[in-house]
Amino acid sequence: MAVEDVPDTGLHVDIEAPTAARDGVVQLASIRALPRLTATFDLTRRGAGVQVSGQVNAVVGQTCVVSLEPMETALDEPIDVTFSPSVEAVSTDVDEPPEPLVDGVVDLGAIATEFLLLAIDPYPRKEGVQFAAPQTEDGGPHPFDALETLKKRLGGGKP
Fold it and tell me: CB neighbours of 124 closer than 8 A, spacing ≥ 6?
């Protein structure tokens, strides 16, 4: 969206990602599925730049890292980012400097995708699932015996 198309009173935009775009995000994010991806944006002019705030909403299909079962997670990620054509001219005492505005255009789809990717848990775990270490048989070899032997051989073991 071109910044010049944003009226002085601001602009509200709702987007819903089509299947092809969601399929691309599935591959990019290495997730199992993305059955829903929507975003709402409120754009406000800030001089020659624009303030973009809103929300990304998605349902992300992943695999639990503990049980290896499929799971779905609902994500609601807030968006708040400023774009400016001259990033260098901004004061350094601000919490977060503005993003560069390239050719006077803000790509709302790219913003939604970026915030979604940042919100995805890289190690998803189904609620209530706990990791349990494998049990060894009494008198049987311990899974870390080989490492203990190597440690002793290299001089790192206790005397």
Answer: 62, 63, 64, 65, 71, 73
Check residue 2 and report its DSSP letter: B
* pLDDT at residue 71 greater than cutoff 70: yes
% helix, strand, coil for the chain, step of 5: 25, 35, 40
3-state secondary structure of 124: coil
Model confidence pLDDT, tens digit, residues 83-115 = 998 766 555 556 788 898 888 899 999 999 999
For residue 122, the 8-state DSSP code is S
Question: In 122-148, which positions are buried (b, 16+ CB within 10 angstroms) versus exposed (e)?
Answer: eebebeeeeeeeeeeeeeeeeeeeeee
> Amino acid letter at 19?
T
CA-CA-CA-CA torsion for 35, 57, 39, 68, nearest 10 degrees? -40
Q: Residue 83 burial by CB count (10 A; 0-12/13-18/19+): exposed, middle or buried?
A: buried
Strand order in the sheet with 99-100: 11-16, 33-46, 49-63, 70-84, 99-100
At 117, is the secondary structure helix, strand, or coil? helix
Determine phi and psi for 149, rounding to 5 degrees.
Answer: -65, -45
